[in-house]
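To assess whether the prediction recovers the assembly geometry, we first specified each molecular entity separately, as shown.
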Amino acid sequence: MADAGRLPEGRLPPGPTCRVDFSRPLAFTFLGRPMTGFAGDTVASALYAAGVRVFSRSLKYHRPRGLYSMDGESSNTFMAIDGVPNECAETTALRAGMSVAAQNVRGDPRTDRFAFIDRFDRLMPAGFYYRLFHRPYRLWPLFQNGLRRMAGTGVLDPRRNYHRDGVRAERHLNAEVAVVGGGAAGMSAALAAAESGLRVCLFERRPWLGGHLAWRVRDFEGEPLHHRAGALAARVRATGNVRVFTSSPVTGVWGDNLVTGFTIGARDDPFRECHWECRAGTVVVASGCMDRPLVFNHNDRPGVMQAGTAWRLARMYAVRPGGAAVFSVGDDMSLEAAVDLADLGVEVRGVADAREAGRQDPGLVASLAERDIPVLSGWAASRAMGRRRVKACELRPLRGGGSRRFRCDLLVANGGMQPRIGVLATVKAKLAYCADTHSYQPEELPEGVFVAGSMTGLRDPRSIEASGRLAGHRAAVSCRGGAATTAVDAASAVRRDAGSAADGLPGPVSGCDIRHGPALGRGAKAFVDLDEDGTYKNVVESAAQGFDVPELAKRFGGFGLGPGQYRVTGQNLAMIMADLRGDPVETATPTTVRPPLVPPSLATLAGPGHDVHKRTPLHGELAGWGAVFRRAGEWERARYFSEDHSCRDEILNVRRNVGILDSSPLGKFRIHGPDALKALQRVYVSDMREARPGRCKYSAMCNDMGQLVDDGLVVGEGDHDYYFTTSSGRAGSTVEWFRYHTRHDGWDYNLVNLTDVLGSVNVAGPNARRVLERVTTDDVSNEAFPYLGCRHITVGDGVGARCLRLGFVGELSFELHVPSSYCRYVWALLVEAGADFGIQPFGLEAQYCLRAEKGHVIIGAESEARVTLTDIGMGWLWDREDTVSKKVGAPALRACENQPGRMKLVGFRVDERSGSLRDGAVVVGRAERGVGGMAGDGEIAGYVCTTRRSDVLGWQYGMALVHEGVAVHGGRLLIRQEELPGRPESCTATVVPPPFYDPEGTKLRS
Amino acid sequence: MALASAAVNWLKLRRLWRPSPLKRRYDTVIIGGGVHGLATAYYLARNHGIRDVAVLESHYIGFGGSGRNTAIVRANQRTAENVRLYDEGLKLWRVLTDELDFNLMFFNCGSLLLGHSEASTGAFRMAASTHNFMGVHSELLDPQQCAEVIPGLDISDRPRFPIQAGLYHPPGGIVRHDAVVWGLAKGAAARGVHIHQGCDVRGIKTDAGRVTGVRTSLGDIGCNRLGIMAGGYSTAIAAILGIELPIHPLTIQAMVTHPLKPFLHHVFSSTAYHVYANQTLKGEIATGAHMDPQVNYTTDATAYYLKHQAEALVELMPALRGVRFMRIWAGLADMTPDMAPIMEGNLGWDGLYLDAGWGYFGFKSGPVAGKYMAEYMATGERPEMLKAFQLKRFLENRYSGETPAVMKYGHWD
Amino acid sequence: MTFRLTCPVCGKRDVYEFTFGGQERGPRPAQEGLSAEEHFRWVQFRLIPGGCETREEGASRADVREPLQEEWWYHGQGCGVWFTTTRDPMTNREVEGGGGG
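The predicted structure of the complete assembly is given in tokenized form:
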């Protein structure tokens, strides 16, 4: 106190509960003006201490808005901090160098140029915009743009990268008991639950433990209340199996007690913010209370604030909340705040208590009397005066006449306390209005959820702690995480605590049922919702238009839709609406509480953003060749090897010399066991008995609609033993697929996914055999190793490879499947051996074109949901005689094979010599020579799946899915593409059967 | 002049529609007080003079999908029969705003669908060619053009799936979903339709192959025609009559950020990232997510989607790292295997009509579906426009082509 | 909801580790004599056995009800087993004792 003269401006002498360190000043700016706060301040407390009263302007009316709450209950103190919009000044810790600016203002928030709008509120009844601005319709876009510009608060620069600084972390926690709220009840619950040896996680949104006890200095049982909080906190911190997370708001409690939230990093944390998810056995909810806002005329003026706000400013931040204060409150804790603030030197000129005389704590009433503070029971604030901040207020009795005016710069207002029901609502506890506490209380709690503390209406610290212990023990018993003996111990502890709780400790205190301040006239600006400027008058207007239940009024009038969500609005709206309807207040159902209970930033939710993907064993080799990689499913794959995305050189090299492809992502499987063949017969459409050792059987898988889902090769390996390949995209779901379609059969087979175990390298082109001959001594001649053969060969220094002779790209081609660890060796071997034959790598795009020239289908490219295997010309694969294997897809193929009017896959040759036709152009019918040139049928008859101009063929080929009527060989299609409206390009093409390249298949058999 | 009279009128606060007494019998009963049910009732009265209509809503009108969607409207569907329907629907917003004298807040901002693979370029070209051929404006854009339309899109190679193409559809936009519900209710009630809220359907009465009435929590109601238009609840209601449908009610989630001054002037979406987003007139970024595959009638949100959505959005538009989600909610999507709806008449019983299976396209199609269902119910003749949406297509394996993707196992996955 | 499923091998795990496999509809029907319509119904149509249980009379408020559903799940991000369990579509929760089938 001796240093009082040297106190910074706006500050009180730091008391025992002060969290601000005056020895560590932090310089920051507000609207460019330099200011100083201190370590421990929030942005809001520092601004308030520096004399800032108007923090922002409101959304609709541009009314001045000030510091109302300390836990981010509204958007009043949303500010742009270091350019990041909508940061809540109340909960953001001050850091040196911060640049803070007000939002939704034109110019200075004190003199905002749009402040005049407030005078026109009469012209903007609830939902006015639905009945205005649309006549004449042509003017609507103008109004709409005006509305858009006026709406919104923060300004986001879409080109800026926000929160690139600072690490975003992610944690996955497991606990038997999770406790939400680190006040006396939560801490007691955590300690009680921890007695059984269970893992407990305690989450507290503020940077410290203790809840409201942390700032209360009133003596209780011989010591100040904050000592009690300190002692509990010390015990919690010292308990090894309780993990304490402060600055950690809970965003929601979801199914099966998944508790989520985030931790705001302290100075020495390795992260800026950390998203966490805690899978808990049971949850104790001890989230406490907040002031229920008092609805009265101009209740949003800067200077009107929660009791908790004024109190915490003074006690935790050593900020003088005001010089002269008036209280209009409805509970004892607020009376205690009045006494305490008076003791701190705030001149409290009067206290209105909405409760009738005799319902207050007599001790507090006496304390107020001792300090000559008049207490007006049954009174409440009717009006705040002052344009930009409170200068005076008017109090009136709730019943009867009379009024009193007080000059003041601080009006502490509430209608008593309301529990923070967010967590209870998200776990779907059944909440009902309690006519004693005048709050929403859980009637039924879901399994594994317990509630404790002041939110149940308890106020006595001993009761609060006892309720916490009881909930903690119950949670321990319920979660079954503990061993049986500890559960028994805990159960007896429950009985003990339940006994003591009932044993003389005070129960819940009755609450305050005030709906709004007295004498609310027609023109009153009494806000039920601060974020979207929803007034009492707007509630009346909503009801008058038929939106007379909270859920409808919320949607029509915008109550509780802003950043504060249900917190400021929820209970008041329900109570007011019940009154307006003339229903008992117990029937009021508040609006649905929706998570997140505290808003997390997208940067924090997105977290570190690990890019999980796979690379093939040959990634480095491909990169060395200049590969351009693209993501294909989970794989990073080489798509091109030059900037020429037509891949002309890659294609020609395969056709003329020899190319080498890294096909490692190809699905590779082994299936063995007595019922392996049965399983193959079930999922493949062909007769899989033809898959024999040394011989590849090509087949396809369909789904139950007969649609193509996969194709590949199956080779016999021995008795009841097969090796098979799938397309890369299907590798991950093949085991699932086999097992699904045989799930009722109880068949005995083993299925092993070898996709990552084996790499594969494909050598294709007229010179492929010559290359292979240089790396193996095995006989790979056409006679010894024919097309569709499969051989085990040895390459280089004795690497065993399974070699498959394929024809996907339409050339002589060998695919070597080798253990992944040998891939690089084999690749190097082949590249060296092929040097003389012009070997070059080719990528996915070249492969795509090569196979298309050959008329080979790629799933998803030439197939879709409207066509079956038969429709795309692969019906020959289907073993239609087999009805005993119950082949997947067979009934659909049978049903559709002769069905008229289906789409079919056709090949075509573009008639023009050169053109711009590309994938996705639409077929608009048969090309017929009409009066004005070529005309289609006027209907879309299909589309081009794939088309390329082929340097090998010398013409442009393509495949299209078209309606049967135009799928006639030799017929002509009118094809049209219109990437921009009014710029159609069209051409004609002749339907020709694929394959376009080497139709006799001599190349791949050579 | 019109503006002046509106200005005089808007201060007179009247109920948008009056509660009506429950009659024991109506000519037509519609189950479901959402956009589809109300639009059907509105058009029955407006176009066909059938005013003896009751709309039964179990909660309050707009409680279901109508009030839970992200309010995106567009006509850039994949195949002709779908484009035709949605295009007419898109043109109705303006007409209805006038007819209903209620501002539906159609924000014609255009939508941009992003593609992330070589294949998506072809798919977009197919869509754009189809649209433009049918007179529906669409444009195929390259990544640079995408960034010109929506500044802030990350068109670099940094994202997991870099943007490779865009399908820009200027006629699309967003509409205030609740306003559509209320406006249609207003218009229907003004033409004599009775709207009964808080009315649960508990049974359906039939006699000699005809629908004769419904049992409700407010008593029995007789009718000649019954329309089931209850969105995600339609299958369960149809099941009362033992009607099985290929419809899977799934929970779909959406969320909004804190409000911001306008910076996103279009809808953008990406199927690769399972995300669609727009900025509402109030300034929030509203964004919708993918669905869980199991049939489920809850409207519970999950932590998974909150996180997933953040991951997706910041990949596409890194500036969104700087905003916060303030609300997540869920609704039901009634998915069919081909993502197209089922609109049927005389389904098993004479006089029984069904309009369901809209998946997540139910909002944008509401008024136009109502218009044609009203015609169907009034005449008993299936309108040409609805021929593509019959139930039998699933029994004949003729999907509508709304999506190229094939289902894994027959249920919606 | 972020609920958990009981895998017969791995125990209770987060539902997002699993792939949904649809309703249990019994073994694949024999193809001999199977009509196209029967097949396509079996594949795509949802079975709501006994129709939809309608709400009890006098209940003040309830949504439409569907009966409990026996259904298939695959533990793809775990042991790779297909199993059936029983779930209540009205609450989207596994019914106690429904797992491990």
